[in-house]
Amino acid sequence: MKTNLEQYSKEDHGIFKKDIDPDVLTISDTLISNGYQAFVVGGCIRDMLLGKTPKDFDIATDASPPEICKLFNKAKIIGRRFKIVHVYTSERKYFEVTTFRSDVKKKTNEKKFKKIQGMIKRDNVYGSISQDAFRRDFTINSLYLDLDSEILHDYVNGLDDIKNKKLRLIKKPSISYQEDPVRMLRALRFESKLGLKLTSECKQPITEMAHMINNVSPFRLFDEILKIMHSGSAVTGYNKLKEFGLFKYLFPYTNKILAENQIYNDFFIAALNNTDTRINDGLHVNPSFIYAVFLWPYFQEIEVKYSDDSSSGIDRAFKKVMQSQGEYIAVPDFFQSTIFTIWSLQSSFLNLSSRNVQYLTEISKFRAAYDFFYIRSQIDHELKFYADKWYEIQKNVKGKKRERGKKYYGKRKNK
Question: Of the N and C termini of the chain, which has fewer Cβ atoms inside 10 Å?
């Protein structure tokens, strides 16, 4: 891609300093007053131009990581392959400050990269703002707002693409997806979440290159799938993963079962609709829940094989699922415990004895397990009777907890 720098005033691009987190302005002012450049860049600019509220703000600068750290009392360099700086503005709040990068080796002007498992791995070096712009993934993520002049710098026609609702890679798609196969997931996420249309030249290679997603770290993929499923457009994202042949490489065991039993697909859609509703209503969602849903068919299949071992069958089945799936997407131990609780409690919802009710409702993950059971009942109508009973039970439990909370805080207030 070859294009010229376009610059837009705040009247043209419509982003004003009042839209920026004040702490970001403080960080940028510090960089600028010490002779460095400071730009707000990436997804935050994209979101503001699309009329959305950014989740966070990233800053790009020509200052090196050590130079950045000298300017701030609370700054920490992180990363191995390429170092970025976290500048803390409070104990828990920080912003990423990144030095301009380039794909080009400075002395020889030779592009330096090597292939590992079919992926192109580039040795990142520091560069100029224009070099930084061209090494990014999509044009919509390569817009730079100068917080000194409030001018928007656009090297890749990103602003026009946003106006035209177009999603386009900066580099040749086959090269871009080889550099980082996660860009295929990002393409489908942005298309689903932002209402953009992926260009045909960027769309066509995904099906052909989908297998390369297995070259990505299983731990990284855990987060990337959550981003799709917690975008507020999980149903659309899930359907696109299947349409472009990515789902079968991400969840191969589940995919095989789906091909033979479509009722699980209905279960997935019901669960993802529920997740979308909660996300769009601003409610909390547990990251474990999505993986409990997607791996449930495989767990049920394995559990049957270990059903003769009543004492440890569930444990063995669970470990088998996590171990096998972990070669593709690795679920961290912290989230595995919640998934195990959700699955192991499912049969308990068929027991409505007062003793069992008391036992289940006192378990910390009761609500997540109940939600899972309730969604299952929407597909398996034999469970509906029990789901309705538990709906009334959990309503009463919620009411009692609220009353206990009022009494507790009332006593505290009177002390």
Answer: C
